[in-house]
Amino acid sequence: MLLNSSKNTVIAKQVKIASTFSQKLRGLMFYKELPPDNCLVIKNCNSIHTCFMRFPLDIIFINKENAVVHLLHGIKPFRCSPVVKEACTVVEIVSGQIIRSHTEVGDTLSFL
């Protein structure tokens, strides 16, 4: 589970981790959809692409302390994010989930 500890809200109930090169490269490519309660966590990452995606995503960039350092709302397919130097992990979630979970830059996230 992924929680916004600062706001005491659930961001995602199911967390999938991408830590190998191939898992990171594939990400959510070719998925028809991402269920609303799911997210993909990409370790050792500070930028993403949405090539071959079929749906928009919200993106949360976090640092080593699991603090949110940058947010992208509704990034569309075939786009690239900026490189966020402070980030070491990226969370990909369903578009609109950042707003629903009240997540903001500076919030701390927890993985359970």
Spell out the helices and strands N to C. EEEHEEEEHE
Shape: globular
Number of DSSP helices? 2
End-to-end Cα distance: 5 Å
Characterize the biggest β-sheet: 5 strands, mixed
Which CATH architecture would you pick? Sandwich
Number of strands: 8
Descriptive key words:
single chain; 112 residues; mainly beta; Jelly Rolls; five-stranded mixed sheet; three-stranded antiparallel sheet; 8 strands; globular
Structure, explained:
A hairpin with a 5-residue loop joins strand 5 (57-62) and strand 6. The chain has one domain (2-111): Jelly Rolls. The mean pLDDT is 95. The protein has two helices and eight strands, in the order βββαββββαβ. The chain is mostly beta strands and 112 residues long. 9% of the residues lie in helices and 37% in strands.
SSE topology sketch:
Layout: E1 2-4, E2 9-12, E3 14-18, H1 21-26, E4 38-43, E5 57-62, E6 68-75, E7 89-94, H2 97-100, E8 109-111
Parallel strand pairs: 3-4
Antiparallel strand pairs: 1-2, 1-8, 4-7, 5-6, 5-7
